[in-house]
């Protein structure tokens, strides 16, 4: 049991700084300013579920999926960078719709897409997190682990589940933050996060290109 708790603690210690749920909370505040209460609740409840399954699939099948489609880790980073930068531009320069009431009616329909992209991926389970999970899974399979086999089987799903619970709790607290800042404050947060997302997206692309250069892809 002590070995299981140790493995879970190490897993959370690696995931939390890399995935950083607080960043997802800030992004959620920026994107959910015009949502209804029910739409926000639905997003808060579904985002951790998406994150859990993304991490679970990355652990058990991530390398096989990437090999099947010929996708490399640098390619994953560059693609994620374009997605993050695009979302950032839309937050930084929001388009004012002529028919606001029509948009409000569609909020509930668009909630699932907001929960998956960008909150679950690439904000929480981004290219760096997925690459780390795939790398750890491959090292456990190819090398002898210091933990018993049953710990290796049980620990990863528990780590991903606990991380999803932490993410849910952070997103749940965003309601209080939203009430404190108000509409104007949330709009300001949205634009600041948009700028930061553009910077993050560009950095993802730079990192991916750097990895391709070091691997000799361009030679």
Describe the structure.
This protein is mostly helical and about 220 residues long. Helices cover about 85% and strands about 0% of the residues. It has helices at about 1-20, 20-30, 35-70, 75-90, 100-105, 105-125, 125-140, 150-170, 175-215. It is globular, with a radius of gyration of 19 Å. The protein starts with a helix and ends in a 5-residue tail after the last helix. Residues about 100-110 have low confidence and may be disordered.
Write the layout of secondary structure elements.
Elements: H1 2-19, H2 21-31, H3 37-69, H4 73-92, H5 100-105, H6 107-124, H7 127-142, H8 149-172, H9 174-214
State the low-pLDDT regions, or none: 98-112
Helix-strand pattern, N to C? HHHHHHHHH
C-alpha termini separation: 50 Å
C-alpha Rg (nearest Å) = 19 Å
Tell me, briefly, the overall form.
globular
Can you give the helix content as a percent range? over 70%
- Give the overall average pLDDT: 81
Strand residue percentage? under 5%
Largest sheet: none
Q: Structural class, judged by helices and strands?
A: mainly alpha
* DSSP E strands, number: 0
Count of helical stretches: 9
């Amino acid at each position: 049991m002590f070995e299981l708790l140790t493995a879970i603690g190490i897993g959370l210690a690696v995931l939390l700084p890399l995935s950083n749920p607080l960043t997802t909370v800030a992004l959620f505040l920026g994107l959910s300013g015009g949502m209804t209460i029910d739409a926000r609740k639905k997003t808060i409840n579904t985002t951790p579920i998406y994150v859990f399954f993304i991490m679970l699939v990355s652990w058990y099948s991530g390398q096989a999926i990437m090999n099947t489609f010929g996708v490399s880790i640098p390619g994953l980073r560059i693609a994620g960078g374009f997605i993050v930068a695009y979302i950032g531009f839309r937050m930084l320069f929001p388009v004012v719709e002529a028919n606001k009431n029509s948009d409000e009616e569609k909020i509930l329909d668009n909630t699932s897409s907001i929960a998956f992209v960008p909150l679950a991926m690439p904000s929480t389970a981004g290219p760096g997190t997925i690459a780390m999970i795939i790398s750890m899974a491959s090292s456990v399979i190819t090398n002898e682990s210091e933990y018993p086999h049953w710990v290796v089987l049980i620990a990863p799903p528990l780590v991903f589940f606990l991380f999803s619970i932490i993410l849910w709790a952070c997103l749940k607290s965003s309601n209080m933050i939203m009430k404190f800042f108000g509409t104007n404050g949330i709009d300001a947060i949205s634009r600041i996060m948009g700028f930061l997302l553009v910077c993050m997206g560009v950095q993802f692309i730079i990192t991916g290109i750097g990895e391709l250069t070091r691997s000799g892809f361009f030679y």
